Amino acid sequence: MTKKGIKKILVPLDGSKNSMRGLDEAIYLARQCHATITGLYVIPIYPRNFADAIMPYQIHLKKSAKKFMSEAKTKCAQKGIVFRSKVVFGSPTAEINDMVNTKKFDMIVIGSRGQSGLKEIFLGSVAKAIVHKSKVPVLVIK
Amino acid sequence: MLTRILVPYDGSKFSSKALSHAMELAHNLDSEVFLFSVVSIGYISPPGMLGLIRTKSEKESMKKWQKIVIGDAEKMLKTAAKKCKENGITVSYSIARGNIANEILNFSKKKKISLIIMGSQGLHGIGKIKTLGSVSRKVSEQASCPVLLVR
């Protein structure tokens, strides 16, 4: 048996159906391995640049983020799993990678497609970049 | 939910890492592990050799080589399966011939696999430059079940 088990799981969420499916799978895994889940939402805008023009959009995004994060939290609480949520600004892939490297996660669970779902065949851009870049195991949920 | 785990195994260090991960998960999830290896003809003969084979003796030697390679694969899978059994995991293995990615996808469909655990790359390529192997890429894109890529 391997020495270290899966203790911390990172679930990048963006409120899409696919990412929620990823969360379901993560909950199942966390239950079996006694792990904690961290939900991460990256708002894909830098706040410094033209802040005034996109402010309403940002507020809207933040609100929706709060909504689906609380949804995720109740989902986890029902199954008895510790859930932490985090919302940051920046480029999704870079932020997710940073998070994994600094906080030492054991696994990433990600939906194969996020909000910009076009086709079912290939991976989405974020999922693909993470699969390529991450140093820890990545579970891709279809 | 994840009761049937497929581990494509080719003996590389990535796939053995994937196997140890699979063992850990199977232990926690009480699931069954399928070890799977594909022997492709491209591995056996040097590229471009197939067109040059004409005489009977050459064909026979090709067949012999194939047999040897399959035997080796079986040996490799047997040792891996033994390792699993020592940890108390139900395990079965099989070998197929043909295109690697396609065979893995077919197998996962046929056996109703619920999770594929594979290394981020296999025996080919330069590990430091490549981030994802060709087979891993194809399987992760086209598989209908969740795929766990281990590196």
Key phrases:
heterodimer, A: 142 residues, alpha/beta, Rossmann fold, five-stranded parallel beta sheet, 4 helices, 5 strands, 20% strand, B: 151 residues, 48% helix, globular
Sheet-strand content of chain A, in percent, reads 15-25%
Poorly predicted tracts of residues of chain A:
none
Q: How do the strands of the widest beta sheet of chain A line up side by side?
A: 3-2-1-4-5
SSE-based structural type of chain A = alpha/beta
Estimate nothing, just give the exact number of structural domains of chain A: 1
Structural class of chain B: alpha/beta
Question: Which percent range describes the beta-strand content of chain B?
Answer: 15-25%
CATH structural fold name of chain A? Rossmann fold
Order of helices and strands of chain B: EHEHHEHEHE
**Total number of helical segments of chain A?**
4
How many beta strands in the DSSP annotation of chain A? 5
Sum up the overall morphology of chain B in one term: globular
Q: Summarize the largest interface: chains and residue counts.
A: A-B, 24 and 26 residues
Question: Total number of β-strand segments of chain B?
Answer: 5
- Given as residue ranges, the uncertain stretches of chain B (5+ residues, pLDDT < 50) are none
Shape of chain A: globular
- The portion of residues assigned to helices of chain A is 40-55%
Rg result of chain B:
16 Å
Oligomer: heterodimer
Main pleated-sheet profile of chain B: 5 strands, parallel
- Cα-based radius of gyration of chain A, to the nearest Å: 15 Å
